[in-house]
Amino acid sequence: MDDERRARFEAAYNRTYGQITAYAARRCDSPQDAADVVAETFTVAWRRVDELPEGEEATLWLYGVARKVLANHFRGDNRRRVRTAELDAELADLYGHSPDTQVELDAIGRAFRGLPDDDRELLSLVAWEGLEREEIARALGLSRNAVRIRLHRARKRLSRALAAAGVDITAESRLVPAERPLREAL
Fold it and tell me: Is Transcription regulation found in the keyword set (predicted)?
């Protein structure tokens, strides 16, 4: 990138960063989401610096970019919510025979969603996708030993979260065949 284009980007960044950050913060549910939107907005500006107008027009152009980034963010968020609802429905089917179904299901869902993303991914690959450690290692670009250690830690964290929520995972009599992969993941 030549000096002129770099200078144009830096000038727009320095002049508009606060405005774009405030714009995103007012529209996002969390500061992290707002930071992601701001970062993506300026990434687009960096890639499209030749289209970046001068002066005050740059602010308006960046608002337009931020608006599109926000729309993509919300679409992704909605997709995650739909997948979570599908998972909740699947878990409801699994636990549908218990009188304490909804309370327990809610506790399991909260415990699972409260885990770090990496833990949820590992446990999901085992329980829902039925992958073995070696397959997970290839999929995630990790060694088999790293997967073994991380999976052990993820299982411990989930077990602790479930115990803290009052969910008894040792009650084998309540497990129906479709739940066995979940139990095996634990």
Answer: yes
